[in-house]
Amino acid sequence: RSAWLRPGSGRSFCEWKGVASYWDLLRDDGGPQERRLSRALWSYPQPTERFSALAGWFSLYPALMDGCWVDGEPVQPQPGGFYGGWILPWLQGPFKGDPAHPELR
């Protein structure tokens, strides 16, 4: 729901996809005030031609959410704070960011 999103601070650059913009997520837990999750999502408003299908879509960091599921299976966040990968039971690692595999940096 776009009403829950606010432009976040900073940008980053991917050599394949281009410049990413970050978004803050506003959460209303029913309490007296809403909670703001800074830079919880990102998007590529003008991705490179090869990744043009990403325009208009958002990605989110599952580690910042209370939970994420795919086909009823809980998502494990990709190790490390930089990557936003969604690790599911049917995927095999190792995955970038895993401290047990420094060769994947």
Helix share, percent: under 10%
Principal-axis shape equals: globular
> What structural class should be given to the helix and strand makeup?
mainly beta
> Multimeric state of these chains?
single chain
Biggest beta sheet summary: 4 strands, antiparallel
Q: CATH superfamily of the largest domain, called what? A: Domain of unknown function (DUF427)
As a percent range, the share of strand residues is 35-45%
The counted number of beta strands is 8
**Mean pLDDT, nearest integer?**
90
Note the total helix count. 0
Number of domains in the coordinates? Answer: 2
Terminal Cα span? 34 Å
CATH architecture of the largest domain: Beta Complex
Given this structure, which CATH class of the largest domain is correct?
Mainly Beta
CATH topology of the largest domain: Metal Binding Protein, Guanine Nucleotide Exchange Factor, Chain A
Which stretches are poorly predicted, pLDDT < 50 over at least 5 residues?
Answer: none
Please give the radius of gyration in angstroms: 15 Å
Q: Numbering strands along the chain, what is their spatial order in the largest sheet?
A: 1-2-3-4
> Topology as H/E string?
EEEEEEEE
Task: Walk me through this protein's architecture.
The chain is an all-beta fold and 105 residues long. It folds into two domains: 1-60, Metal Binding Protein, Guanine Nucleotide Exchange Factor, Chain A (Beta Complex), CATH 2.170.150.40; 65-105, no CATH class. It is built from no helices and eight strands. The protein has strands at residues 5-14, 18-27, 35-43, 58-60, 69-70, 73-74, 76-77, 86-87. It has a four-stranded antiparallel beta sheet, with no helix packed on it. It has a two-stranded antiparallel sheet with strand order 5-6. The radius of gyration is 15 Å and the shape is globular. The mean pLDDT is 90.
